[in-house]
Amino acid sequence: MKEFLKRKDIVFSPHRYFIDALGAMAQGLFCSLLIGTILSTIGTQLGLPFFNTLGSAASAVSGPAMAIAIGYALHSPPMVLFSLAAVGYSANMLGGAGGPLAVLIMAIVAAEFGKAVSKETKVDILVTPLVTILVGVGLAALIAAPIGKAANWVGRLIMLATELQPFLMGIAVSVLVGVALTLPISSAAICSVLGLTGLAGGAAVAGCCAQMVGFAVMSFQENRWGGLVSQGLGTSMLQMGNIVKNPKVWIPPIVASAITGPIATCVFKLEMNGAPVNSGMGTCGLCGPIGVWTGWVAPSEKAIANGATAIQAGAGDWLGLVLICVVLPAVLCWLGGLLLRRVGWIKEGDLKLN
């Protein structure tokens, strides 16, 4: 059995399923639902129907996109990979509001079964897609709806708690989602699975921006402009190697997220009502701020289901967005980094990117 699993590249490990697969799922969401939301918003605001058509088409294939991305991360052979489109569509549809979590589970199970039978028979062209689709779609029909409801319930609980206790939950959501963004897991996928919008989504955006902008500014003297762009618009995950070597370098971004989170929820009432995946993107491609903007002008279906409506953003809203996403993280982490360098907790080169 061990030899068979090794030959089929079937690896039962948290890293494979909760880091590789989850991260790939976020990319699938980015290339479908997130881009589709942005295109639709542009089309609506500028009166360009063609962009609405593009956006609707991209958003409609989010389930297949997620499943295929997961299959790619699991090293699925072509026949399995292509069959996962049907699995993703059915799991996302049957999972309802918690569709992304259903897609993650069904795609993983279907991909592993498909890999197990791939090229084991002379009629592989029939057996492999049949097994992959039968397992994935069949399982989705049985448990996708309960899984989706469970994920939606947890997400709604977090959002309700944030509305009732904006200060404490602002800190908790901001810090936890921000830490998840820097760790080698996908904060975007987590936010999408939980369907985080509203105040909780705003706190998540604050935490992610604190990590990305914070590390970019704090490490400027080591990494200069290239590091500023790669971390500020790319990912703070680039610092994981340095965090392992010296965990103290993580203190300023975490403290910054603990400060900006409650400011977002209590002072500016910052809500992220775009696609939930935006809540965990931070300043990566400016997706976090863009999600807040799209939520103002055209809330996502998930946000509308949670009671969101379009608003006419005022100067205070824009001020809060800029302060939370860019200015405060930059200032707080610059000051925090300066202080830790002076006391010797951060030394020259500790934040250098290879």
Question: What would you note in describing this structure?
Answer:
The protein has 354 residues and is mostly helical. The protein folds into two domains: 151 residues, no CATH class; 178 residues, no CATH class. It has 16 helices and no strands. Helix 7 runs antiparallel to helix 8 and helix 7 crosses helix 10. The longest helix has 41 residues. The two termini are 40 Å apart. The model has no long low-confidence stretch (mean pLDDT 92).
Can you give me a brief rundown of this structure?
The protein has 354 residues and is an all-alpha fold.
Distance between the termini: 40 Å
**β-strand amount:** under 5%
Reported for the largest beta sheet, the result is: none
Shape: globular
Number of structurally distinct domains: 2
The number of distinct helices, counting runs of at least 4 residues, comes to 16
Overall pLDDT confidence: 92
Low-confidence stretches: none
Number of strands: 0
The oligomerization state is single chain
Mind telling me the C-alpha Rg?
Answer: 21 Å
Secondary-structure-based class equals: mainly alpha
Roughly what percent helix?
Answer: over 70%
Order of helices and strands: HHHHHHHHHHHHHHHH
What characteristics describe this protein?
2 domains; globular; mainly alpha; 354 residues; single chain
SSE blueprint and pairings:
Layout: H1 2-7, H2 14-46, H3 49-60, H4 62-73, H5 78-95, H6 99-117, H7 124-164, H8 166-182, H9 187-194, H10 198-218, H11 220-234, H12 240-245, H13 251-267, H14 287-297, H15 301-305, H16 315-342
Helix pairs in contact: 2-3, 2-4, 2-9, 2-14, 4-5, 4-6, 5-6, 5-7, 6-7, 7-8, 7-10, 8-9, 8-10, 8-13, 10-11, 10-13, 10-16, 13-16
